Amino acid sequence: MTHFLQEERAGVLLLSINRAPINALTTDLLDEGSLFLTGLASNPPAGGLVLTGAGKVFTAGVDTKVAAGLDRPGRRGLLNAVNNFAAALYRLPCAVVSAVNGHAIGAGGIICLASDWTLIADSHSLKIGLPEAAAGLPFPEVPTIIMEYCLDPVWRRRLALSSLLLAPADSINAGLADELVEPAMLIELAVNRARKLESQPAFRRVKADQRARGLAEIAAFLDSA
After folding, report:
1. Helix (H, G, I), strand (E, B) or coil at 56
2. Does the predicted TM-score (pTM) go above 0.85?
């Protein structure tokens, strides 16, 4: 893979977004990720998946500099790529844990919402949020569905309309993250969390039941697109 690093840790797959310096997302990166995650769904890792960012940033979201240079079909292609990546991640049957090691902006926040559990590093410099309005980008359709099912309505309004960026502790109150951890322990604890989720005999069945309505809406949209 070009834009992702893979590492196996005792049955858990550690997948790192790898596009220096800030892991900004492009159509090519998202298409590559979608293809990989779709394939992974048919043979998911026994211990689950941990998703993080290479370097010091989780992901700065869509590369706005690249997006600004796209023509209308190119921008629609980028939105479609975001939709497909978010759908592929949300559809994974195994445990998915996000390990937020640095800024998680825009699509980075959506990745956290699409995960089953999100650990966030306790770092004063880290910010997380959904600032599409400030970036001049609309929320694509699939992330909008994920937000509806995974984010409290009050916080969905606050985050989407104000482009508010949150510190790690505040992100837990908002529902963007679940667990605040020491930066040095982030990956180890994320791997352990994925393994612990997967150790529950009915985890995958309960996950499928919890996501059934959201998955149906996503499938209906993608079938009609």
Report:
1. coil
2. yes
